[in-house]
Design a protein that fits this description.
single chain, 415 residues, alpha/beta, FAD/NAD(P)-binding domain, Immunoglobulin-like, seven-stranded mixed sheet, 20% helix, globular
Length: 415
């Protein structure tokens, strides 16, 4: 089946739905391709509250947040094909997908929005010694089993990693009657939001062990225990003599998220080695003209509200390109240095002007430091912040009118 659409959105999660709504509002015909049986993405299994405080000004659960966007989509002419897997897209904006209902689809798009989200790192990425018993789950898998399938993954739990999903599952499993023995974090700081540390761990008396990791999994048929060890702060290697064996039947892994960019890489999109997402300009356009990226496929967010705002920008930009396909030239780089791990966007086009938002993460915990944004000898912004941590994405707004040089972001510490 051959189809045409002004804007094709790959992914029907929070980013894809927000992008589709903005593209539709701009007058574009929009087709959303979603591989799951229903739109909404990961939010459908996030039954806890805390979503929507910035976007809607009220506290919602994940399904409620997704439901508001789904209801808006139903009031438009946006078409969503669920249970549809995208196989590839090309530089000339042709999308090949397969669907149980429609068979093989070849779609000609005026513009493409990449909104495929992200996936979890698995045990295979960690190389933990031991056998391969039942009872080892990623935190997101355990969340789906508990919240959507009605299964309890285990009763005595150790969690490796302090990402937000792991913190939330520590609370969820405690409330369901399990005993969470400990949350172990390799780094000297958490990779999750501070509010989740307080609400999920502190409020439920769950111990958080910084500078610790799992060095062995015990058990053949089912997890029987794990051995944890303190690690050296600099080398991250286990310190002999600090091992502790904790009896448990379940190990949850919350050790980071990876943007789902196999399609992007296959199409030849330029990638950022730090974010594992595409290199984009201020309109979220990738190195392939007419292909835009947003949400967790671009860089991992900690707040879905930010995902929605970024996706709306990508949706508007995609609709504008579909109407007038005139690619902007890349004029300046946005360079993260001096304590800043990455910045998005990584490029500014020759059309960039006025105030734009720069999203960034730092590589360490900084207290009382300042973010410095410069272009040549011109200081665009210097803002002192009480604390900046790797677990929380930061945003600043700068005026890029009249730039003649690259933009540099760095951390300025006292002394």
């Amino acid at each position: 089946m051959n189809r045409k659409a002004d804007v094709v959105v790959i992914g029907g999660g929070p980013a894809g739905l927000a992008a589709a709504l903005q593209a539709d509002a701009a007058g574009a015909s929009v087709l959303v391709l979603e591989r799951d049986k229903e739109p909404g993405g990961i939010l459908q299994q996030c039954i806890h509250n805390g979503f929507g405080l910035h976007y809607f000004g009220e506290e919602l659960t994940g399904p409620e947040y997704a439901g508001r966007f789904i209801d808006r989509v139903k009031q438009t002419g946006i078409e969503i094909l669920t249970d549809t897997m995208v196989l590839e897209f090309t530089a000339d904006r042709r999308v090949l997908a397969v669907s149980a209902e429609h068979g093989l689809l070849e779609i000609e798009a005026g513009a493409i929005v990449l909104a495929m989200g992200c996936r979890e790192r698995t045990r295979g990425a960690l190389s933990i010694p031991g056998t391969r018993p039942a009872g080892v789950f990623t935190a997101g898998c355990a969340q789906r089993l508990t919240n959507m399938e009605g299964y309890m993954p285990g009763r005595q739990v150790v969690i490796l990693g302090s990402g937000d999903i792991g913190l939330i599952m520590a609370r969820r499993m405690t409330w369901e009657g399990a005993k969470v023995m400990a949350v172990c974090e390799l780094m000297p700081y958490s990779s999750g939001l501070n509010r989740n540390i307080v609400q999920c761990l502190v409020d439920n008396d769950i111990p958080l062990k910084f500078n610790h990791t799992v060095v062995r999994i015990h058990g053949r048929e089912r997890v029987e225990a794990v051995t944890i060890s303190e690690v050296d702060v600099k080398t991250k290697r286990p310190i002999p003599g600090t091992e502790e064996t904790i009896p448990c039947d379940t190990l949850l892994l919350s050790v980071g998220l990876l943007p789902e960019n196999e399609l992007s890489i296959a199409a030849g999109v330029e990638m950022d080695s730090v974010t594992s997402g595409a290199v984009v300009d201020e309109e979220r356009q990738t190195s392939i003209p007419g292909v835009f990226a947003c949400g967790n496929v671009l860089h991992v967010h900690d707040l879905v509200d930010n995902v929605s705002h970024e996706a709306e920008l990508a949706g508007r930009s995609a609709a504008a390109f579909a109407k007038h396909p005139a690619p902007a030239a890349r004029a300046h780089r946005v360079i993260a240095e001096g304590g800043v791990r990455y910045a998005v966007p990584q490029m500014l086009s020759d059309k960039a002007e006025g105030k734009i938002d720069l999203y960034f993460r730092v590589g360490d915990v900084y207290r009382g430091a300042a973010l410095l944004v410069k272009s040549g000898e011109r200081t665009l912004l210097r803002r002192k912040k009480p604390i900046m941590t790797p677990g929380e994405m930061e945003k600043v707004t700068v005026d890029v009118t009249g730039l003649t040089d690259d933009v540099h972001l760095s951390i300025e510490t006292e002394g």
